[in-house]
């Protein structure tokens, strides 16, 4: 699958919110209950996602030949990766890995010494392959639904 990585554009917000929901509903459904998936997927609107990605953080989008988003990710100034999602049909094809590598390169260029994230079950497996370590399992409630993820970090 041919793709390139570019900076986030405000006009991406709706497509990225759709990508986020599809990734949660199709990829994360392997590891979480239907109630958990519904709570998680329902938590992001295009407006909210666009505001966060457009707040000055590094936000990158992997796009195909038609400029349709295949994956997106971000990096906050303190080394926090809040989002790293691939469209279900792009998962496992190296696109999210290339996007992550671009984020890590940016972090190194900014002399960051640590990257950290809160990773789902699927993301935990991905980040472990990228050299992250699990700090702790986080149990929390989203709406009224019990959830969990993993605090992870990588020293640069």
Determine and state the CATH class: Alpha Beta
Major sheet summary line: 4 strands, antiparallel
Major sheet: arrangement of strands? 1-2-3-5
CATH topology tier name: Aminopeptidase
Tell me the CATH superfamily.
Gcn5-related N-acetyltransferase (GNAT)
Any key phrases for this structure?
globular; 4-stranded mixed beta sheet; 156 residues; 35% helix; 4-stranded antiparallel beta sheet; alpha+beta; Aminopeptidase
How would you describe this structure to a colleague?
It is a single chain. The protein is of the alpha+beta class and 156 residues long. It has one domain (4-113): Aminopeptidase, CATH 3.40.630.30. 35% of the residues lie in helices and 31% in strands. It is built from 5 helices and 8 strands, in the order E-H-H-H-E-E-E-E-H-E-H-E-E. The strands form 2 sheets. Strands 1-2-3-5 form a 4-stranded antiparallel β-sheet, with helices on both faces. Strand 2 and strand 3 (69-75) form a beta hairpin. The protein is globular, with a radius of gyration of 15 Å. The termini are far apart. The model has no long low-confidence stretch (mean pLDDT 96).
Task: Offer a concise description of the structure.
With 156 residues, this protein is of the alpha+beta class.
Write the layout of secondary structure elements.
Layout: E1 4-7, H1 13-26, H2 34-41, H3 46-53, E2 58-63, E3 69-75, E4 80-81, E5 84-86, H4 95-109, E6 114-119, H5 121-129, E7 133-142, E8 145-155
Parallel strand pairs: 4-6
Antiparallel strand pairs: 1-2, 2-3, 3-5, 6-8, 7-8
Helix pairs in contact: 1-2, 1-3
